[in-house]
Amino acid sequence: MIYEEKAVVKGCLKKDPKSQQALYNQYADLFFGLACRYTRQEMEAEDVLQESFIKIFQNLGQYSGLGSFEGWMKRIVVTTAINYYHKNKKDLSFSAHTYESENVSEHNNIIDQLSTEELLSCLRSLPEGFRLIINLYAIEGYSHKEIAAMLNISEGTSKSQLSRGRKLLEVKMLEKNKIKIL
Is 86 or 52 the better-scoring residue by pLDDT? Predict the structure, then answer.
């Protein structure tokens, strides 16, 4: 942790509003983007972000100083997003639908052709189970065992949802880019 960040964290521990605002200003955009990947609407992402910073400020004394401070906060944001999902979901079941996507993997450079907004839109349009698992596994780097524990599902369900979700995401990205799948 750099010196300025240490000073801000010390101020936050003392509940100094200026230090809390400085910490928020430094990380809000980054963590808002993270929250957007786990939610369907910006308003939900804002709720996750606000709740995350409340937890960060409340639990700052638990940060040991070992490892990345940003990583410690990121874990809180991800956990808050998952808890938000659990609290607001209507159906615990994950999708069992299959999606036809023959020849989709031939278009490996499709991501390069989409803007960040288009990619986020495709990700947000996925069913929640797919979106959560793609985020946790492919983006955050959690194992299927860890995902299974977080979401209260089996490892097999995590693996199948990742596979199906990737296929559907490719289809949506191709549609967004107006590429026909033969």
Answer: 52
- What integer best gives the mean pLDDT of the chain? 82
Using CB atoms within 10 Å of the CB of residue 107, give its burial: 0 to 12 exposed, 13 to 18 middle, 19+ buried.
middle
Report yes or no on whether pTM surpasses 0.90: no
Structure tokens at 12: 């936050």
pLDDT (tens digit per residue) in 132-147: 898 899 888 899 999 9
Q: State how far the Cα of 149 lies from the Cα of 66, in Å rounded to an integer.
A: 25
- Measured CA to CA, the distance from residue 176 to residue 170 in angstroms comes to 10
Reduce the secondary structure of the chain to three states and give it as a string: CCHHHHHHHHHHHCCCHHHHHHHHHHHHHHHHHHHHHHCCCHHHHHHHHHHHHHHHHHHHHHCCCCCCHHHHHHHHHHHHHHHHHHHHCCCCCCCCCCCCCCCHHHCCCHHHHCCHHHHHHHHHCCCHHHHHHHHHHHHCCCCHHHHHHHHCCCHHHHHHHHHHHHHHHHHHHHHHCCCCCC
Q: 């801000």: which residue's tokens?
A: 8
The predicted pLDDT at position 91 comes to: 46
pLDDT on residue 100: 39
